[in-house]
From TrEMBL:
Coiled coil: none annotated. Residues 239-381 form the Acyl-CoA dehydrogenase/oxidase C-terminal domain. Its cofactor is FAD. The lineage of its organism: Bacteria, Bacillati, Actinomycetota, Actinomycetes, Micrococcales. Keywords: FAD, Flavoprotein, Oxidoreductase. InterPro entries: ACX4-like, Acyl-CoA_Oxase/DH_mid-dom, Acyl-CoA_Oxase/DH_mid-dom_sf, AcylCo_DH-like_C, AcylCo_DH/oxidase_C, AcylCoA_DH/ox_N, AcylCoA_DH/ox_N_sf, AcylCoA_DH/oxidase_NM_dom_sf. Residues 129-221 form the Acyl-CoA oxidase/dehydrogenase middle domain. It is an enzyme of class 1 (oxidoreductase). Belongs to the acyl-CoA dehydrogenase family. Residues 14-122 form the Acyl-CoA dehydrogenase/oxidase N-terminal domain. This is Glutaryl-CoA dehydrogenase.
Length: 389
């Protein structure tokens, strides 16, 4: 572990926080790792890990999140540990602890938060973030076409489709973003997954994040009571505030994936012998190890600093965009180098690198592609928006 956290960023945590992390790490090593290759190949999530992971005190108590984002690097390190073991485990966790919790924290009124947040924290109300649509990904702000029609009795009727929604099949509610037909603005609703008019289709044939299930959701005349509308969402501006907060989680995931691949590669080259010597003794291999370590260390330093800023309440689009973009670039470089030094075994699940190599591609694209994050940074640098319609 020392190699992965070269500058000992974990020493910034309290002893109690480190204890939780250490329990999490032991659980992941003993209970999760042995299952990963098999479940990845089957394209199924190991549901038996869900309850024990929740019981490992993964989320802060409700009182800590009531007034703001209890992100902090402690939360980041928990995401990092999960991703360092498996990207789907980290994505499963951030779907609830990042995406859904942020939707409630930013979008729900004080009364709604008082009712829902404790259940979000203990996972008794499981939710997913349903923003992307079949025809709108990067340009969702302008292209969002799911509609919400207000009814005379105050309820709403939703029509449209959502794509790529992670964890939808096992969620209780879907946080759905839809355009109000009256004022043209984006509103948000908690939709019961089993409500009339909601259909879910599993997206098959994925070559990345195979353990995490993504759904194509169709909404046909779905009635939602006004009480289930997120009262603090009145335009896409509020959705952007959610994205700004969540993107840093993905930077932690990218950092964890790079670290997991690096560690698997390091263990392999110390074991495997060619020309009568361990692979790790060759200069060209050592150069690749050094580059991987550089990527991992730079990423960890970046996310720690970003998260410290956010914990102080400093949220800027360009900050989380920079972290997501740069850690994703480092991740892609690292998983490719890791695969390379493991040779032919690098494309088998058994050597422990191939999963990270494949999964990195999904993380590279979700929650803002490389290009979109680069354009957010470009807009901040020049004052010119290059990606408006
Ligand atoms: P597109 O927008 O079609 O982009 C395709 C390519 O064109 C990209 O390289 C993009 O960068 C580039 N491009 C687009 N516009 C420009 C431009 N102006 N300039 C330069 N290049 C451009 N969404 C949810 O709402 N909830 C989820 O839970 C969720 N989970 C996901 C899980 C996975 C595994 C994946 C793959 C996606 C998930 N998504 C989810 C959707 C994800 O956020 C989108 O895939 C992402 O925003 C990109 O949209 P797109 O795939 O439609 O690509």
């Amino acid at each position: 572990y020392e190699a992965a956290d070269w500058y000992d960023a974990e020493s910034l945590l309290t002893p109690e926080e480190r204890q939780v992390l250490s329990r999490l790490r032991s659980f992941l090593d003993a209970e999760a790792r042995p299952l990963l290759a098999e479940y990845w190949e089957r394209g199924e999530f190991p549901e038996q890990l869900a309850r024990p992971l929740i019981d490992l005190d993964l989320m802060e108590p409700a009182e800590l999140t009531k007034d703001g984002p209890a992100r902090g690097i402690y939360q980041g390190f928990r995401i990092f540990e999960l991703a360092r073991t498996d990207a789907s485990l980290a994505t499963w966790y951030t779907a609830q602890a990042g995406l859904f919790r942020t939707a409630i924290r930013v979008g729900a009124s004080a009364e709604q938060q008082a009712e829902w947040m404790p259940k979000v924290i203990d996972f008794s109300l499981k939710g997913v973030f349903s923003l992307t649509e079949p025809e709108s990904g990067s340009d969702i702000a302008g292209g969002l076409s799911t509609t919400a029609r207000r009814q005379p009795d105050g309820s709403w009727i939703l029509d449209g489709a959502k794509r790529w929604i992670g964890g939808a099949a096992t969620a209780d509610v879907l946080a759905v973003f839809a355009r109000d037909t009256a004022d043209g603005q984006v509103k948000a609703f908690l939709v019961d997954r089993t409500a009339d008019g909601v259909t879910l289709e599993k997206i098959h044939g994925k070559t990345a994040l195979r353990m995490m299930q993504n759904a194509h959701i169709t909404l046909t005349g779905v009635r939602v009571p006004e009480a289930m509308r997120l009262h603090n969402v009145s335009s896409f501006r509020d959705v952007a505030a959610m994205l700004r907060a969540m993107r840093s989680d993905v930077a932690w995931i990218a950092t964890g994936i790079a670290t997991g691949a690096f560690e698997a590669a390091l263990a392999y080259v110390n074991e495997r012998r060619q020309f009568g010597r361990p692979l790790g003794s060759f200069q060209l291999v050592q150069e690749k190890l050094a580059r991987m370590l550089g990527n991992v260390t730079a990423s960890l330093s970046l996310v720690v600093r970003l998260t410290e800023q956010q914990a102080k309440g400093i949220y800027r689009d360009q900050d989380s965009a920079l972290a997501k973009m740069q850690t994703s670039l480092f991740m892609r470089d690292t998983v490719a180098l890791a695969r390379e030094v493991v040779g032919g075994n690098g494309i088998t699940l058994a050597a422990g690198v191939a999963r990270f190599h494949a999964d990195a591609e999904a993380v590279y694209s979700y929650e803002g592609t490389h290009e979109i994050n680069a354009l957010i940074i470009g807009r901040a640098l020049t004052g010119e928006s290059a990606f408006t319609r």
